[in-house]
Write a structure and sequence with these properties.
Layout: E1 11-12, H1 53-67, E2 89-90, H2 92-108, E3 129-132, E4 135-138, H3 151-158, E5 163-175, H4 184-194, H5 196-199, E6 206-216, E7 232-233, E8 243-244, E9 283-295, E10 302-308, E11 330-337, E12 346-351, E13 354-357, E14 359-360, E15 366-370, E16 396-400, E17 407-414, E18 418-427, E19 433-436, E20 441-446, E21 462-463, E22 483-486, E23 502-507, E24 510-511, H6 607-613
Parallel strand pairs: 2-6
Antiparallel strand pairs: 1-5, 3-4, 5-9, 6-9, 7-8, 10-11, 11-17, 12-13, 12-18, 14-17, 15-16, 18-19, 18-20, 20-21, 22-23, 23-24
Helix pairs in contact: 1-4
Length: 614
């Protein structure tokens, strides 16, 4: 297989608590996306985001390789075919850990990679991590890799879900102008080319891909200041307050003035050129994280539903690309199906009120093997057989060559410009109905040139909107009037804080896919309302701590008529008590560090990107 032009691999194998409420007796209907609507334990770049379609595509394509390595001719070191393995399930807590690390690396230019330092300092953070006011963040100053928190300790802090991270891969770089995000196909290709050992690890059943982007602001678009007319300036390069314009009239900085006579900030030299200083045209620094590990979550029947345009890895030497190619105006819809009882009776794409049959992507290899207990005549006696004798060799049947690892179904649609809401619906061999996502729908945006819009805020990747389902096969999944509890927020947040379960109703023999009345986590805590707004079990996290009002000074007891002045004693000092403080006493006001974003420029992409966009 041709090796694509890619960046070299980066290989790497609190006080406030809340008592969890018991799980509800009724069964809740999960979103079946495997991710949260909000971030759980951190804030900053990448927080409060659901996985993008590009992150979904990356894990979908990685699972194609994992479940059907024979398509790519992948072999062991001994030259034997690699056995397929069941698809990785998406683990939201792994994605959160990856987003934290990506945001930290970009913001502080913290790239602690193998070769830069001895183990176990590979992939350290550049600060001491910990819990502050219930949130995972840096609790010490930004420092070097040698003094930061080690990788395993970072996992322990960030990965608090039903799984354990076993290894991670990081891929930093920058994108050409006009490309808002790294296509998931390239991320999957990077993983396949550089980390097959992790991709086929039997101990890893879950994974998450996360991408954090930040704009690379051109120098001419950085804040610029006129020379100060008077007063003291802060030197932009050194930060020193020694730039007296009387001695150095070319000093650029911010006029500080004095307490008695404050000076206004210096103004911009001239208006910025809108053609140069257009954020839509800036390059993007990115940081991809691939996290793998174990999980107690079962393998879903339907998962990895995506819509994309394969072809980003196509080159003149490899015109078909790693994962195929479609033309502009065409969109590939694909979904994973895992049900060992047999192939589905029906698997359809429901999109904007129309339904389309999904086709099996690739037939698993099979071979003819003898039926157990019927081997025919003894093979050792074959030489003594009469040539005219009817040689019955026994019965044979077709069986898979490799263990069952699930099936991939796909369908290519020619689409005009617009936003398309879709979901997948399957009826298994025993008549049970499944859908992906189980609540709401996914979205794909196509522009006027027939390209999938990688970032369209008007067409979100996931939405509560559900397309009409009249085109789907009639089933008796439920009875009219029936209801069941549902919840589309982060697993584990239901019935915590402000979050509440909703109700899903039966419509035309199917569950509607709409969760009415639910309350999902909010993106951030609302300080001062004394509520757990993001439903992680901590109230007022990352908020300034207001000290309690001092207890009022007790009044002397004047009730005894015969009490003398000498018996009145002295009133205790405000707040004093004989009892000890049994609280944790470590709540502090959060002091965040100000630091400019680092500009990550570690590699340019080759012709397989430029030919697609330029």
């Amino acid at each position: 297989m041709k090796r694509a032009l890619i960046v070299a691999p980066l290989l790497a194998l609190g006080c406030t608590t809340d008592v969890e409420k018991p799980a509800p007796d009724t069964e809740t209907q999960g979103q079946n996306l495997g991710e949260s609507t909000q971030a759980y334990y951190f804030s900053g770049i990448g927080a409060g985001e659901m996985p993008t379609m590009q992150e979904r595509v990356a894990i979908h394509l990685a699972n194609r390789v994992r479940t059907a390595p024979y398509v790519w001719g992948i072999q062991t070191e001994e030259g034997e075919p690699v056995d397929p393995i069941a698809a990785l399930t998406y683990q939201p807590f792994f994605a959160e850990a990856g987003r934290w690390q990506g945001a930290h690396a970009i913001q502080y230019q913290c790239f602690c990679t193998p070769g830069m330092m001895p183990a176990p300092q590979d992939y350290n953070t550049c600060c001491e991590m910990g819990l502050k006011n219930g949130e995972v963040q840096c609790v010490g100053p930004i420092t070097t890799c040698e003094e930061g928190t080690e990788e395993a300790d970072r996992w322990a802090l960030l990965n608090r879900g039903p799984g354990v991270i076993n290894n991670e891969f990081f891929w930093p770089g920058d994108l050409p102008a006009g490309i808002p995000t790294l296509p998931g196909e390239l991320a999957a290709n990077f993983l396949v080319q550089n980390s097959l050992g992790a991709l086929f690890s039997p101990r890893d059943r879950a994974a998450a891909f996360s991408q954090v982007n930040t704009p690379i602001i051109p120098q001419e678009c950085q804040p610029q200041f006129e020379p100060c007319a008077q007063g003291i300036c802060t030197d932009i390069d050194t930060g020193a307050n020694e730039c007296d314009t009387a001695l150095n009239p070319d000093c650029l900085g911010l006029c500080l003035g004095t307490d008695e006579n404050p000076a206004p900030p210096c103004t911009l030299n001239e208006p910025l050129d809108p053609e140069i200083c257009n954020p839509d045209e800036w390059q993007q620094a990115f940081y991809w994280t691939f996290a793998f590990g174990g999980s107690r979550d079962p393998v879903p029947v339907l998962s990895d539903g995506v819509a994309f345009q394969p072809g980003f890895t196509a080159t003149e030497q490899n015109p078909e690309g790693t994962f195929g190619v479609v033309e502009p105006g065409e969109v590939l819809f694909s979904v994973r199906y895992h049900q060992p009882v047999g192939a589905p009776q029906s698997l359809k794409l429901a999109m904007n009120g129309s339904c389309f049959d999904m086709d099996l992507w690739v037939e698993p290899p099979t071979e003819m093997v003898p039926v157990e207990g019927d081997m025919g005549p003894d093979m050792e006696d074959m030489g003594d057989m009469d040539p005219d004798m009817d040689t019955d060799m026994g019965e044979f049947e077709e069986q898979p060559v490799f263990p069952y690892s699930g099936l991939t179904f796909e369908n290519v649609q020619s689409l005009t410009a617009g936003c398309y809401r879709f979901f997948y619906s399957a009826i298994d061999a025993e008549g049970f109905v499944y859908r992906f996502p189980s609540l709401g729908s996914l979205g794909v945006s196509v522009d006027a040139e027939g390209r999938v819009n990688l970032e369209d805020p008007e067409c979100p990747t996931w939405s509560e909107t559900v397309p009409p389902v009249q085109c789907l096969p009639t089933v008796d999944e439920c009875n009219a009037g029936e209801e069941r509890p549902c919840y589309s927020g982060r697993p584990g947040t239901q019935d915590k804080g402000i979050c509440e379960l909703g109700t899903e109703s039966c419509e035309q023999g199917r569950w509607s896919g709409k969760c009415e009345g639910e309350v999902r986590p909010e993106a951030e805590e609302t300080c001062g309302d004394n509520l757990d707004n993001n439903c992680n079990g901590v109230v007022e996290e990352n908020c300034p701590i207001t000290p309690p009002d001092p207890e009022p000074e007790p009044e002397p007891d004047m009730g005894a008529d015969d009490m003398g002045a000498e018996d009145m004693g002295e009133a205790p000092a405000p707040g004093s008590s004989d009892s000890s403080d049994d609280g944790c006493g470590c709540a502090t006001v959060d002091q965040k560090q100000d630091s400019p974003y680092g500009l990550v420029v570690l590699g340019l992409f080759g012709a397989f990107i430029l030919r697609r966009f330029l």
